[in-house]
Design goal:
8 helices; three-stranded antiparallel beta sheet; Tetracycline Repressor, domain 2; two-stranded parallel ribbon; globular; 7 strands; 212 residues
Amino acid sequence: MSFYSVAAFIRDNYPEYFGYQTYPIADCVRIRKVAEEWGVFCNFYATPIVVDGVAFKNAEQVFQLMKFKDPEIIKRIWNGITANDKICHEVKRTVKSYEKAYRRPDWGSMILDALKFALMRKYEQCELFRTELERSRGRFIVEDQTTFPKAQPDCWGVKPAVDGVNFSGPNVLGRLLMELRDRGQLDYRLPDDALGYIKILQNVRKGEESRQ
């Protein structure tokens, strides 16, 4: 299994979210691209989130940075510098360049709790996100990976089933969003040092302010 695949993490640590689900296509809200309808459900949608004084571009940035402990790596990712010293404005690509060498060893046991944390901050701070979740009520939320080159959906999404009338897949992101919509909260438990990167970024921000 690929180092970057989260399937084993979900299976071993979050079995309640593991396995395929089926949803009638006609009854689904589809997450596809940021610029399309329901784009606010994408983690990459521009929804500024502030955590303890540190401003993030979106939920994905909050989530991805939680993979690391090393202060220098966190600073490099924050500044969009990859492991081979290239400038990259896509946090997921920047993070991927450091994962094999620097990802925290317990990431698999906290991955969904980290995502729940990011989604809760987005829910609390983004009115559009809350409004669109409410508008989706009564329908299933799925990450539609129909156009993805892989034959099967990854853990986050779904693809059309062979019957042509249903979506099928793990749909972990969609399931979390529906849980958030229906309950108004997501319960999570993070390691004591999970937000250590916030303190590191607070110091970065203070340094930037002192130079102004």
